[in-house]
Design brief:
This protein has about 270 residues and is mainly α. The protein folds into 2 domains: about 55-135 and about 230-265, Cytochrome Bc1 Complex, Chain D, domain 2 (Orthogonal Bundle); about 150-225, Cytochrome c-like domain (Cytochrome Bc1 Complex, Chain D, domain 2). About 55% of the residues lie in helices and about 0% in strands. The chain contains 11 helices and no strands. The protein has helices spanning about 1-55, 60, 65-80, 85, 115-125, 150-160, 170-180, 185-190, 215-225, 240-255, 260-265. The N and C termini lie far apart (about 75 Å).
Length: about 270
């Protein structure tokens, strides 16, 4: 009798244990299938969105909040890995290196559209790529003997005047004559000094500077010239990554507008 009782008790324990284990196994399988399904669906959804991001014309993509959110998500780690070393983690550039602020909506090349930003990323600036932006650069007027040191100082005062900074009036007047005459500055910067985005010549009236707008920085720019370079990212990055970066930079540069805040998710 004792033996039968132990046997029945043992059978009962096993009888309870195995169904519980089976239920745990089934639950684990269900969870695994659910997780796998979730990531599979997400993968195909994201793949579809990435295809749309690249297929949508650049002048339309910025108006699709879903695509912009995807671009921002994809581009942030790309920017951190490849662009932040020059433009900074805050995207505000570096005057020491002459890398422009990407957040202020002021552009050396093009009009700041997704198309123009994408073109710069693809082919670079003076990068050696035959399609890079390389029509002109800022020659060293002092190094080439085209202007004397005193003449350059006068031009500096003129530039400070038209950019609404403090200036020396007499020197600025002489500098204006040099700007329009001997220095031939108007060839690139235009007769009103508002620049030319085809050449990458900055608007000197905007008080926005890659290398600095103080007197010494302006003197150095005119005397020595500037020859900034941006590498071509065609190859190191694929086309989807380039498009994502272009959209991301566009959105960041428009954050001060209501549309920009919607694009960036703020």
């Amino acid at each position: 009798m004792a033996h039968n009782s132990i046997t029945r008790a043992g059978f009962s324990a096993r009888h309870v244990f195995w169904p519980a284990k089976a239920l745990w196994t089934v639950g684990a399988v269900v969870v695994f299938i659910a997780v796998a399904t979730f990531w599979t669906v997400r993968h195909f959804r994201d793949s579809d969105l990435e295809a749309r991001l690249l297929a949508t014309p650049p002048w339309e993509v910025a108006f699709d909040p879903t695509l912009v959110r995807l671009a921002n998500e994809r581009a942030k780690p790309i920017f951190a890995a490849h662009c932040a070393s020059c433009h900074g983690t805050d995207m505000k550039g570096s005057r020491a290196a002459g890398t422009p602020n990407l957040t202020d909506g002021s552009w050396l090349y093009g009009d700041g559209s997704v198309y123009e930003i994408e073109r710069t990323i693809l082919f670079g600036i003076r990068s050696g790529n035959p399609k890079s932006r390389n029509i002109a650069d800022m020659v060293g007027l002092g190094q080439r003997g085209l202007l004397s040191q005193d003449e350059i100082r006068n031009v500096v005062q003129f530039v400070r005047q038209i950019s609404n900074q403090s200036y020396q009036a007499e020197a600025a007047t002489e500098g204006g004559k040099l700007f329009e005459g001997k220095g031939r500055c108007y060839d690139c910067h235009g007769p009103e000094a508002r620049g030319n985005s085809d050449y990458g010549a900055p608007d000197l009236t905007a008080n926005v500077w890659s290398y600095g707008g103080d007197a010494q920085s302006l003197y150095d720019s005119i005397y020595f010239g500037r020859h900034g370079i941006c590498p071509s990212w065609l190859g190191p990055l694929d086309l989807k990554q380039v498009r994502a970066l272009a959209v991301y930079i566009y959105a960041v540069s428009h954050q001060e507008t209501s549309m920009g805040r919607r694009l960036s998710g703020d």
